[in-house]
Amino acid sequence: MTKNSVEIRNLDLSFGAVKVLQNLDLDIHDGEFLVLLGSSGCGKSTLLNCIAGLLEVTGGQIFIKGHNVTWKEPNERGIGMVFQSYALYPQMTVRGNLSFGLKNARMPKPEIEERVKRASEILQIEPLLDRKPGALSGGQRQRVAIGRALVRDVDVFLFDEPLSNLDAKLRADLRVELKRLHEQLDNTMIYVTHDQVEAMTLADRIAIMKDGKIMQLDSPAEIYNRPRNLYVAGFIGSPAMNFIEGNIAGNTFTSGDLSVPVGDYDYMSGGAHDGAAILGVRPEHVLTDDMLPSADMTAKVKADLVEPMGADTLVWTSLEGHPFRFRMDGQAHVKSGDEITIGFNLTRISLFDPKTEDRL
Amino acid sequence: MSSAEHAPAGPDKRPIRLFRNLWSKIAAIPMILVSVGIFVGGTIWTIVYSFTDSGLLPRLNWVGLEQYERLWSTRRWLVSIENLAVFGIASLILTFALGFLLAALLDRKIRFEDTFRTILLYPFALSFIVTGLVWQWILNPEFGVQSIVRGLGFESFTFDPLYDSSKVMIGLLIAGLWQGTGLIMVILLAGLRGIDEDIWKASRVDGIPAWKTYVVIIIPMLKPVFITALVLVTSGIVKLYDLVVAMTSGGPGISSEVPAKFVYDTLFTRQNLGQGFAASTMMLVTVAIILIPWALLQFRGKKND
Amino acid sequence: MKLTTKLLSASAIVSATSVGAVELEVTHWWTSGGEAAAVSELAKAFNEQTDHTWVDGAIAGSGGTARPIMISRITGGDPMGATQFNHGRQAEELVEAGLMQDLTEVAEAQNWREIVKPVSLLDACTIDGRVYCAPLNIHSWQWLWLSHDAYEQAGVDVPTNWDEFVAAAPALQEQGIVPLAMGEQAWQQSGAFGVMAIALAGEEAWRAVNIDLDAEVAAGPAYQRVFEAAVAARDLAADTNVGDWNLATNMVITGQAGGQIMGDWAQGEFQVAGQVAGEDYTCLPGLGETQVLDTGGDAFYFPKNDDPEITAAQLELAALLVSPEVQVDFNLKKGSLPVRGDVDLEAANDCMRKGLDILANGNILPSGDMALTPDVQGQIEDLMAEFWSDPSYTAEDAQARYADIIASAN
Q1: Could you tell me which chain A residue has the CA closest to the CA of B223?
Q2: Which part of the chain is the ABC transporter domain (chain A) (predicted)?
Q3: pTM of the prediction?
């Protein structure tokens, strides 16, 4: 029990007839950085608001640090929260923003000062303490918002897309700072985002959500390498994984003229599979040119479109009637219309059952 | 605009600033003429003639401050000013208190919000004359509230504010609030709707009670909305005329007279332009006394922010 | 409808036959049933007896509403052909500003100074020896209307003067009857006070105050009696809870009130209710104290016009208004008294005859409209409004304020 910071049991939430969360279970370990990832409308923010106590659940229970907080007020749950729009109190100075909640809880003044000092040191916002939010940049505002959660001295931090309102450069900077902050504080952090880069870089574990359900809860590497189902496979990675529909018969996947030996494939269920299947290959796992000799199999394709991106080049083509993308080295000389030989390693492919959409 | 920019003077000559956006300036001329000519000109004319003994027709026969001396020794004028002050302060406070309370209630995402909003805003669609007549009936002791309550068995119940000079302003206030609160509510509700929902969440996480969030955080955030509403309400109060005419005609006696009615009666019924102009000048001065410090405060506040 | 048809046919005939015919717009505020009927008599006479056409410009609402509209049209350069005012000082400044047509020619030709009775009506139209308006009718304020029914209920005789009226009040109050009905409007309260002033202070003191503007008399003992009586009347009227004068009159008609001080126009209400003077109600001119009537009323003014044809038509209308036939037809419908003593009103009732007798005896006064400017009248109305609505307002305070107003009047 003590190993888990937050436990969610059979959580249901519906607005009228619309079920937003259904029978959801989730354990979040102590000191873990958990990212709730999904496209908009998947229920990730709703789940976060339920944990925070900002939404009343329809059924199920929420435990924080072993206490049942399902019906507790947000401020009694031992959480701090940071919002996408910062939600700073505009008429108060930064100091006022940080201390308002503590003052309201009748905390002794010296302790408030101590906490504000500590938080502002950590976040390096001491010079800003007497300014009003209107006079701060977006990044500074978000730091103040984090500070407001920090002074609460809580076990669990909740972040609701905190970086979405910032421009790309600031977002990258603050992302790193958040990661550093987590390492420094070692608190439990639950972080909602739709940005898979943020999720991959920050998370200890990622929970990918769709339609109010968790599709996969795993480490970033596991999610990337062994997506549990078609949705996760397509959602993670940019550009998305290539899918080729075909058949497995006798350890060989065939789709038109393409045949791939899958005898060495690491089946999740252990046993081999016969019948309809979908083969998935990430664009960056497709081998070309001098890497070809290590490939387990090869095929020839014609480049339809070439997108040089500097570090690498993205080639759009089709394979057995399925759209197919792959990455080449940035220095590769390819133009559309060229014929290219590609290949891939069987250790890096994924196979899915087209009926259940689950990984084979 | 284009004609000014492509003038034959050539690109090396700086365009004359006056001719920039020439057409929009030309389009604004009628408006400028109207406001300067009619508003400013009319104001100056009124002030000038308030120092004459003009009767039915304006004539430049100077009498110095005589009109003002007479004005400030006229009981009806003093009563009017006092009534306006009482009505103004009470109606400002109550309109905002009630309007905000209703707006906050509606903002709590209650059921049938649209219905309530329509009901509460509906009186605003009525003119003050209609409002006045409606409330004159409701407050009439023979037909209205008093007779209904008495009909229920409370024989000694008395509620006839329009017939009691010490309570008549309360009667006017009730009608004024009924008419005006809906508008303020809608304006404030629009303001509340504009508040980022995350602010509410943040204050809940901070453990701030809802009332305190309203007072300390939300209301300060609504300052521009409040100022808009304040201007609307205040101008309505200073202009207060038709409600009084419809409900009490200034009675009983002169106990519900207001400055605007004094000005109208003096100018048109009593054929005393000089006196009427003096009274309207005093109204202008009163408004200026309220507005100028406020405008300065606003202006300075802007600089500081 | 009938009127319109007549007007249309009349104008058709006129325009077909005459070259100098004009359409003359006449503005007035006579819009109630009896008033409109009276106006149609004027229109009929004008259309039939002259080549011109009467264009009716009635303005709804009271004189207080209509007069500013009329004045702004005259001063604004859009004059009508002719317009109603109460004769007196309402149009004084318009005349002084040279905006009104001089009618002296007509007045002299028709010998108005001989025929207009009382001649004060003509004086009210005369400024610097020139005549500027044609008097049309006489209305007087000095009437106390008494309900026979109310006094019967109380078991006392119908009073014959003010003192008896006051003495009978307690008996009425015992029966739950309001002794004096008084509409809570300033003009009614001020008018009633004026009536009491003439009746109780006497003609001489009244003239000193209202015509010579003698503030000492206004502050003196004669008026002290008036204000004390007004305090008493205020107590008698304390239970009246109505505004409009006709509602107060209705209290008298239905026996809810003993009496009302109101001008002769109240008579129309009694007639409409089917009551008969002398049987169902009694009227006491001058409160039964001083048999004197003021002689306010309506007159027509003719704004100056550039078009000589219109000017000619204006003079024709002015002459027509004072003619005996028009005087009889109009005033019978209107319920007012004619401005000339040489016409016979056979249809007049008991109360009207009383008034005619007083006029014939020459016991007349100019009306407040003639004596005082609207400004001064307005100040007195304010004072009266406050005085009548506030039981703590003493007679001394009111008299002192009244004297101040008279002192500053011009």
Answers
A1: A91
A2: 6-236
A3: 0.75
